[in-house]
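Field log, afternoon session.

UNIT: design team B
ACTIVITY: writing a sequence onto a fixed backbone
BACKBONE:
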């Protein structure tokens, strides 16, 4: 991964881990040990799904730039759908508290999306790769209304 991609990944993952840790503590206090486990599992799932999605999106942007926007929309829709599928699949589990899991999953996802949006806004990413072989000056002479 290029350095911009790693920086964006870190700037999205670190706040998500912090929010997940807070969610685990709060869930542990409210729902006991199973609440903390549910929040921890949810945080890991958010980081895994969203991190993998960011990786796929960055690869698509480099190899198929014309599909970037459509791929981004499809990817976010697929990620949200997968997270809802996990919430539905584990709604009656006894391994951890399902309510703590669901709330932590939602809060972690929102934290990731917000942190990723902030990281993208702050990043100095070039929209067009400059060609080092062409000079920086204008190659065409200026045309004015006066003839010489």
């Amino acid at each position: 991964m290029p350095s911009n991609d790693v920086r964006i990944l870190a700037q999205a993952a670190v706040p998500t881990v912090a929010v997940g840790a807070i969610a685990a503590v709060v869930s542990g206090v409210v729902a006991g040990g199973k609440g903390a486990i549910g929040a921890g599992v949810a945080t890991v799932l958010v980081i895994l799904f969203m991190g993998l999605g960011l990786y796929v999106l960055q690869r698509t942007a480099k190899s198929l730039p014309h599909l970037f926007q459509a791929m981004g929309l499809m990817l976010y829709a697929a990620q949200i759908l997968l997270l809802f599928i996990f919430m539905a699949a584990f709604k009656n589990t006894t391994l951890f508290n399902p309510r703590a899991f669901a709330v932590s999953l939602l809060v972690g996802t929102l934290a990731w999306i917000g942190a990723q949006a902030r990281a993208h806004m702050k990043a100095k990413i070039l929209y067009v790769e400059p060609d080092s072989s062409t000079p920086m000056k204008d190659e065409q002479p200026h045309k004015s209304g006066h003839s010489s």
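LOG NOTE: The mean pLDDT is 82.
NEXT ACTIVITY: expression trials, pending approval
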